[in-house]
Amino acid sequence: MSYSTLPMPGMGTFRLKGEHARDAVLTALDLGFRHIDTAVMYDNETAVGEAIARSDSGRDKVFLTTKVWHTDLAPESLQASIDGSLQRLGTDHVDLLLIHWPSPNQSVPMSESLNALKEVRDTGKARHIGVSNFTIAQIDEAIDVLGEGELLTNQIEVHPFLQNHAVVEHCQQRGITVTGYMPLAVGRVLEDPTLMAIADEHQLTPAQIALAWLRQRNVVPIPASSKAQHLQANLDAMTVELNDEDMQRIAQLDRHQRFADPDFAPKWD
Asked: What are the distances in angstroms from CA 190 to CA 11, 128, 187?
C-alpha cells in the first residue's frame, strides 16, 4: 500500500525508548494506527522496527516516518543517516523522510540538503520527503529549490496554545500538508478550563477536543502515548465534530506558547 496523504492521526514516539517503545507501537498498530513517527534523534528506531515486524498489520500497511538530524544535512552524511535508519528499522524504505530541523545559520546550504533528500526518494529509500520546523521563508526557499509538489509535509509544533496560523495556512496554500507535533502541549491541554468545559459538553476528554480541533484545521496530529486507553481515545478523536462555537472558543486560547525552542531553532514567524 502506498499512501499519498498522511494517515490521521499518527503516533508520535518522542521520549519512548527500548521495550517500552516497542510495546507501545505494537499496541498502537493493533488498535488500528497506520502512521508511526520516529527520528534518529529519538534513539528508538530499532524498537519501532521490531514492533512493525511483530505486528499483524504488515509493513505495507504502515506509514513510517523518520528524520535526519540537523548535524547530518551534508549530502554524504544525509545518505549515511538514512542508511543507518533503514538498518535499525529493518526495512528497505521509509514512507516519509524529513529534515528534522533546518541547518542552523545555513551551515549546509538548503540546495545541498534538499537535493540529497530528493535523491533518497528517487533511489526508493523514501517514498515521500518533507521538512520539519521550517519557517514561511524557509518553506518558500525549499519550494524554490525543489519545485512545487515535492514536499509532502512541514512538521511543526501546533496545539491550542501555539496555533501557528501563519505557517499552517501558508503551507496549506502551497500544497504542503501540516503535521502537528506536541498536539497536547505536553499535557497542558488536560488542565485548561476552556478545553475541559468543551470536553464535558461532548462527553469527551480535553485531549480528544484538542486533537479534533487539529483535524478540523486539516493538521495531522501525532500525539505520543503508550497506554492502550489513550491510544484508542486518540483514534476516536478523529471522528469528533466540533461546532463553530467550539472552534471559536479554542481560537481564543492562542498565546504563542512554544515548548520546542532549542538554541539552534530558526527565527520563528
From this structure: 19, 34, 6
Helix (H, G, I), strand (E, B) or coil at 112: helix
Of 128, 54, 114, 49, the residue nearest 84 (C-alpha): 49
Count the domains in the chain: 1
- pLDDT at residue 4, as a whole number: 55
CATH code (residue 73): 3.20.20.100
Task: Work out the pLDDT band at 203, boundaries 50, 70, 90.
Answer: very high
**C-alpha cell, 101:** 530541523
> What b/e sequence results for 144-173 when a residue is b if at least 16 CB atoms lie within 10 Å of its CB, and e otherwise?
ebbeeebbbbbbbbbbbbbbbeebbebbee
- pTM to 2 decimal places: 0.97
Catalytic residue among 12, 26, 35, 42: 42
Domain range enclosing 213: 11-251
Average pLDDT over residues 92-116: 97
Q: Residue 1 falls within a domain, yes or no?
A: no
The answer to whether position 265 is within a domain reads no
Q: Residues 78-96: what's their mean pLDDT?
A: 98
Domain assignment present for residue 120? The answer is: yes
Within a domain: 2? no
| CA separation, residue 23 to residues 92, 190, 238 (Å) | 22, 25, 23
pLDDT tens digit sequence for 169-190? 999 999 999 999 999 999 999 9
Whether residue 42 lies in the annotated active site: yes
In angstroms, the CA 119 to CA 123 distance is 6
First-to-last C-alpha distance (Å) of the chain: 36
